Amino acid sequence: MKIVHVYKDFDPPVHGGMEHHMALMCWFQRQWAEVEAMTCSRTWRTHVIDREGTRVTEVGEFGRFQSAPVSPMFVRHMARLTTDIAVLHVPNPTAEIAWLAARPKAKLVLRYQSDIVRQATAMRVYAPIQRRFLDRADLILVASPQYLDTSPTLQRYRHKCAVVPLGILPDEFAVPPYDTIEETRARYGGRFVLFSGRHRYYKGIEYLVRAAKHIAAPVVIAGDGPERARCMALARDLGATIAFPGALPHEALVAHLHACEVFAFPSVARSEAYGIAMLEAHAAGKPVVATTLGTGVEFVNQHGTTGLNVPPRNPEALASAINRLLADAALRTQMGAAAKQRVETELHAEAIARAEFERYAALL
Questions:
Q1: What angle do CA 137, 140, 143 make, to 5 degrees?
Q2: 15: pLDDT strictly greater than 90
């Protein structure tokens, strides 16, 4: 069997959740099939490159419009696709339009990450194209039952949907040296609450900033993105005790995850379809305080078991839940242990890769 995974980018060089998931699937599924990937190159040139053992065709593009690559060449490369299974990680209008235009002779599997939420005007134009594309799919994989139940787009396609969650490699978040953890804690004056991720509108960082003055420990907001400057200005205006260390390299992220007491995940919109960052915190044995969005967030962070979930856009509820965990070491330990065990037993990337592969194979 040959499988080709298709998305905008690959990890490396782009370290996003969808990119990393696709890279993990390629890595593990090579045990059972021939696996390649096709992405865009972020330059006008097309080239083939080895990405940690995966052959990746990076198709030339002329920039991006509303995050979608502008790549007329993608149609030509899609038409040349020779594979048994094509796994398109969507939403990805570039690949979706190319598939409709090229009509490759392969089974079409969609890894449906999220609805298109914010680009409402563009979606009114694009919706008929998306429906034609979804009609062509042989199988649609969704990361959580919650997202499948609440997605308006997926309701007419439930008969071809299956739930297969996203996973991580727990070993990548193993305990670092004790001195590293202590040095990280000392940097912030002792125990602290952590957020780490891209600073985008749907992450709800503003509400964590507003909650910070009521949280019984310093707050550390790591990462970078378009909302960072605004959130830093808000923190200054409110006089909140918040550190903004910027984007953390992997080793530093692992140290922060093990050094923190609680991980905060205050997302506010359906664009937050899952929450890989929470799995990373769980792998480090940390409880999470997240929000109830009707998406995979509640699947990842099981309320009362691996952490607490509160209403979105509610700084008071967010602070109260975080303080509850800060005040109860036994509860933190209990929830952190349950979270770590779940990642290791149910959400390991290799098991997820096998589950996806078996779904592909059933189509042939």
A1: 160
A2: no
Residue 180's Cα: distance from chain center in Å? 27
Q: Is the pLDDT of residue 120 over 70?
A: no
- What's the CA gap between 157 and 294, in Å, rounded? 19
The amino acid sitting at 100 is L
CATH of 2-167+349-361, one of 3.40.50.150, 3.40.50.2000, 3.40.50.2300, 3.40.50.20: 3.40.50.2000
Residues contacting residue 335 through CB under 8 Å, at least 6 positions apart: 287, 305, 306, 307, 325
d(CA 111, CA 288): 26
Closest C-alpha to 114, from 244, 17, 250: 17
pLDDT tens readout for residues 146-164? 999 999 999 999 999 999 9
Gap between the Cα atoms of 97 and 76, Å rounded: 12
Nearest Cα neighbor of 215 from 232, 199, 185, 191 is 191
* pLDDT of residue 278 exceeding 90: yes
Place of tokens 């390649």: 36
Q: Quote the tokens at residue 111.
A: 């890894």
89-118 burial, b at 16+ Cβ within 10 Å, e below that, comes to bbbbbbbbbbbeebebebbbbbbbbbbbee
**0.85 surpassed by pTM:** yes
Residue 59 and residue 171: Cα distance in Å, rounded? 33
pLDDT in tens, 171-213: 999 999 999 999 999 999 999 999 999 999 999 999 999 999 9
Paired sense of beta strands 85-90 and 262-265, if any: unpaired
- Given the candidates 3.40.50.2000, 3.90.700.10, 3.90.480.20, 3.40.50.2300, the CATH classification of the domain at 170-346 is 3.40.50.2000
